[in-house]
Task: structure prediction
Amino acid sequence: MQTRVDPFLAAVIHGALENIAIEMGHKLMRMSYSSIIRESEDFGAALTDATGRQLCECTMSTPLQSGPIPGYIAGILRELAKRGDMVNPGDVFMHNDAYGGASHGPDVGFAVPIFHKGVLTGFSVTTAHHLDIGALTPGSCGIVDAVDAYAEGLQFKAIRVYEAGRKVEPVWQILRSNIRIADLVVGDMEAQVAAARIGADRYSSLLDQYSLETVTGAYEDLLDYSEKLMRDAISAIPDGVYNARTYIDGYLDSPDPALKELPIEATLTIKGSDIYVDLTGTAPQTPNKPINMPFVGTVDCAVWLTLRSILLDSEVYGSIPQNSGLTRPITIFAPKGCLANPIFPAPVIARFCPGNALADTIMKAIAPAVPRQVSAGIGNLRVMAFSGVSAGNPWVHMEIMEGAYGGRYGKDGMDAVDTLYANTRNNPVEDIESHLPLRVLNYELRENVAGPGTWRGGIGSIRSFELLEEGAVSVEGDGQRFAPWGFLGGTDGSPAKVELSHKDGSMENLPSKIPYRQLKKGDRIKAFGPCGGGYGDPMLRKPQAVLEDVLDGLIDADMARASYGVIIDGTTLDHAATQALRGEKH
Result:
């Protein structure tokens, strides 16, 4: 690595870049109208250079929002070139093309070009998930029955929303006329523009302070430094070929076998300081269901984020520059026309859960090579979109239901959290009930279901909602057919499930993907989150840890005996009986 500027100055500039991205994120959260951004933090904020290479990202944002930003800029520049158009000072571009770098349609990006002394030097970009994008049914998650990309909502390909500093009013009018909850969504979009402009102003000031040449030299060094860290970590892994195959639910209630129990396969070839990821063996794309994953914006981010998290653990490496240098040693291939590389206009809006399952498959593939750096199988997430009309006004609420991590070397899996390439939070109960016709009946951890292991799997949550008025629900989920995998002798975790209880007392089990379904006042939806797989032989778990789980109400004495060989009498651990039983089991 050739140093272009003084390393201390490069560190100062690195800190400045990170602070700009963090400020963008804070300002976007404070200016936003909807809880999906304000509370769940489902947004991204980053700076890129003029070609789209990422220089920094907001650490609060979800990786599936900040990670695709280089793809957004590449898609914008490609679209402008195709039109014979140019980037000019004062422009602001809106972009959500799922086949042009964006992750999926509801994740709309706004890019503010940054000029310095008349030269384009970069882009300040914000992305965010919007509650409605003018699709077939209300809510932009839970649309699991779109026949093609056109049924998924409005598509924006490098659309100018400001030109030479002036608002392009017809575009904003089109948005307001085609989105169900326009005040919320368009308000969030305007907040994105404002936050991106703040980032552009701060970067311009940085260029004024240090000069374009110095800042460019600093981030070239930072890109090289991040690449070197990743290459060194890869070089420590034995060369070889590592493979794993997992399955996603698909549409379990479909009579078509091509739509359910679909494989995701990953083969990692490690040679020196390079990783080649081949997704051959993954199921063919679904031409009429939106669980396909855009190769750029979803698949690449799932691979990059997982490998970065495993190989450059922040507990070991601390804070490192989050930039495009980290991805240079990784090459990804997926056959055209498979779930991981669909062909337009295959629908993709429900790509989230398959993408998270892909990340889990990458984890499983590399696990034998770095067993102390991975977790056992994760419990996938789900998103519920509630909607209706109250007092004559439409409303939409998006609820992110947590998953759980598998056990890790030396640590139990994390309970009831977003996993892998997600980093969002759920909505506070008080926020939901204060302005929506929904009541949250309970919110608690499941019992007797975590994957047993030397370090047990994380525990999923139970959350129930009651409709206080007539409304509807859509569910985008997975993980109800296949349990999260155990590792090194650990036991598999537990699948998720969803129950619908009707006001008349009847109850039905629902699949993991539910298209728009009308509900009556008093109907209740109960979601059981999945539990992660166990890590290591359960008979090697410390008896005291088993006792603590019993005392905490996470497992009962019967499970302690059956799964861990631990005998608990009331609230007391019977050491002698435990030793004898464990001897019998081994």
Summary: The chain has three domains: 7-226, 375-540, 542-586. The mean pLDDT is 94. Residues 542-586 form one domain. The two ends are 53 Å apart (CA to CA).
